[in-house]
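Worked problem 6 (solution included).
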Amino acid sequence: MKTKGKKKKESKKDQQLKEYISLIFHEHKGRYGYRKIHAVLNNQYQLPVSEKVVRRLMRELGLKCQSRMKRKQPVKVKKATSAGYIYENLLKRGSSPKVVLAPVMKVC
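Solution. The predicted structure is:
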C-alpha cells in the first residue's frame, strides 16, 4: 500500500504488539485472523487495541490466516435434454396417446 509523505517510525507499542500478534498467530498454527487475535489481546493480555491496528500490523508482518476449504458437493449424473431433466417413470404407466372412440348411434 503506497503512502504519501514520510514513513513513520515504529513506536515501542507497535513493536510490542507485533511480538504478541506473531506469538498468538504461530501458537494457533496460523488459524487465527485479525478478529480472533484482537479478542485474545483484549481478553487474555488486557491490551486495548482496535481491530484496525491489529489488521495493519498483521499486514506489515505478512501474516494471513488459512481460509476454510469449501466442501465439494457430489456430482449427480443427470440425463440432459433440451427441455430439462426427465424423471424416471416410477409408476410404470404408459404414455401412449389415448384412442377416442366415436359414440355408436342407434338406428331404429
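Discussion: The CA atoms of residues 17 and 23 lie 10 Å apart.
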